[in-house]
């Protein structure tokens, strides 16, 4: 299978990086030579310097039914047109990034008529993720698996958490949960029982919601209800987030300095309070009672501004603060300086697209630490090599951990004697380099990624449209 990515911004680059690690044949179409040079220097993919909307560009690639085209340019309309053109020229699957809420809520035609197989909306997905974070208050990032039966959450380890300098095997109240990973100084650790938890770490634990809540209480992370939220920045993420939160009965206040955008938001969000002002003005924040807020979310277009204002909100007494950061390499740093959660829209979008592309028996997926690690939920094929063998006897790579088994609806936090049965759901954490091996272990067949086009061009990194 070939993956053709049109547009190499943050999302396009992240998708290309993740897919190239899995031996997919990836072609990135981009007009900016500097972006092309960066991709060629860092990624093992093909590049095509051209306009991805032109039929001549797509014809030069020679699209066929095995190809997937992903349009992630900055323009919704361009993405729709690219998918329509690609489908007409023979592409098997098309994916479009569409961000405008008006398109989301009021389609004049169906996505089938537009020849789009899957639509992604980064802002809406990001808002959904933040909503989960705020309503599951003890944790940072939250991801559901097995239709909500299992959750994986991140917990920043600060001085208030009763886990510093404790070995994982010695932690109390862990009968039904598992420490799946540790993020320490920007490094991903897939831990063993003798590994130590330290202040400054972020740990990811997995289990059922009630068991996670019980564990959080035992380490001093007491849940509290979020009743009011202040959002800084009035972009699309803020719109979707306010929509989610007000639906749940949570009061929302948005601070936005653009008067025209304030007017749009006030019309679109009648149940939210829209304040025209500069959110970097401390006096304004105090006037709007930031000290009384249960949560603060910084969603401006500037990473550094989001981080600094989230820190300020924390110092002023806000219980939960979330900052949007575009650079995924900021996340480990941000979560060690007092911010409850950092969120990167490109990572969320890449995870959605990867889940769709992989298809088959991959049900859900979460990316960790800029894509260095992945958490996958898979169906175990009855004929796969991983079934009917005690976990301790499986030939698992070093950086692979089976974190949960769902057998006939029952959640099992596994130990060495546990066995995966055919058609069980399995939640696996691994380094990205081991994804192919993990999928092989739980599948009855191997995917064939060979392609004559790729073999023809793989000696050169860049080609041009004729």
How would you describe what is shown here?
The protein has helices spanning 10-20, 33-42, 55-61, 76-88, 101-105, 122-135, 209-218, 236-247, 259-268, 282-287, 303-315, 331-334, 345-358, 435-441, 452-457, and strands at 2-6, 25-30, 46-49, 68-71, 93-97, 118-120, 142-145, 150-156, 166-167, 177-184, 187-189, 196-197, 202-207, 228-232, 251-256, 273-276, 295-298, 320-324, 341-343, 362-368, 373-379, 400-407, 410-412, 425-431, 462-463. It is of the alpha/beta class and 466 residues long. The chain has 4 domains: 2-121 and 451-463, 3-Layer(aba) Sandwich (Rossmann fold); 138-218, Regulator of K+ conductance, C-terminal domain (Alpha-Beta Plaits, 2-Layer Sandwich), CATH 3.30.70.1450; 228-319 and 337-343, Rossmann fold (3-Layer(aba) Sandwich), CATH 3.40.50.720; 358-441, Alpha-Beta Plaits. A 7-stranded parallel β-sheet has the order 6-5-4-1-2-3-25, with helices on both faces. A hairpin with a 2-residue loop joins strand 10 (177-184) and strand 11. The protein is globular.
């Amino acid at each position: 299978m070939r993956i053709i990515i049109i547009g190499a911004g943050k999302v396009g680059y992240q998708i290309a990086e993740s897919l190239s690690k899995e031996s997919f044949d990836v072609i990135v179409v981009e007009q900016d030579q500097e972006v092309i040079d960066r991709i060629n220097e860092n990624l093992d993919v093909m590049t095509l310097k051209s306009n991805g909307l032109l039929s001549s560009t797509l014809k030069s690639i020679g699209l066929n039914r095995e190809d997937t085209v992903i349009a992630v340019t900055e323009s919704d309309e361009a993405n729709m047109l690219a998918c329509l053109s690609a489908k007409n020229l023979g592409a098997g699957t098309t994916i479009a990034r569409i961000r405008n809420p008006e398109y989301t809520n009021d389609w004049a035609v169906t996505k089938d008529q537009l020849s789009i197989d899957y639509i992604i909306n980064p802002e809406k997905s990001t808002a959904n993720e933040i909503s989960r974070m705020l309503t599951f208050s003890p944790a940072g990032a939250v991801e559901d698996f097995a239709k909500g039966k299992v959750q994986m959450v991140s917990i920043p380890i600060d001085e208030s958490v009763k886990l510093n300098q404790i070995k994982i095997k010695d932690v109390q109240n862990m009968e039904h949960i598992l420490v799946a990973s540790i993020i320490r100084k920007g490094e991903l650790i897939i831990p063993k029982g003798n590994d130590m938890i330290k202040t400054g770490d972020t740990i990811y634990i997995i289990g059922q919601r009630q068991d996670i809540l019980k564990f959080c209480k035992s380490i001093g992370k007491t849940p509290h209800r979020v009743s009011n939220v202040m959002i800084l920045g009035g972009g699309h993420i803020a719109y979707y987030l306010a929509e989610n939160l007000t639906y749940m009965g949570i009061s929302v206040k948005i601070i936005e300095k653009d008067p025209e955008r304030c007017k749009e938001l006030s019309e679109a969000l009648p149940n939210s309070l829209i304040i025209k002002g500069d959110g970097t003005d401390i006096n304004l924040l105090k006037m709007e009672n930031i000290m009384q807020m249960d949560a603060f979310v910084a969603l401006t277009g500037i990473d550094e501004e989001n981080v600094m204002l989230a820190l300020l909100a924390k110092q002023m007494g806000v219980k939960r603060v979330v900052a949007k950061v575009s650079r995924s390499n900021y996340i480990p740093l941000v979560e060690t300086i007092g911010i409850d959660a950092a969120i990167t829209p490109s990572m969320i979008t890449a995870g959605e697209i990867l889940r769709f592309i992989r298809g088959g028996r991959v049900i859900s997926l979460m990316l960790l630490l800029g894509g260095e690690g992945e958490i996958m939920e898979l169906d175990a094929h009855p004929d796969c090599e991983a079934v009917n063998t005690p976990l301790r006897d499986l030939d698992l790579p070093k950086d692979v951990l089976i974190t949960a088994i769902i057998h006939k609806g029952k959640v099992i936090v596994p130990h060495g004697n546990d066995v995966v049965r055919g058609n069980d759901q399995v939640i696996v954490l691994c380094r990205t380099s081991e994804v192919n091996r993990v999928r092989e272990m739980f599948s009855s067949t191997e995917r064939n990624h060979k392609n004559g086009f790729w073999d023809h061009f793989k000696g050169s990194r860049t080609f041009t449209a004729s």
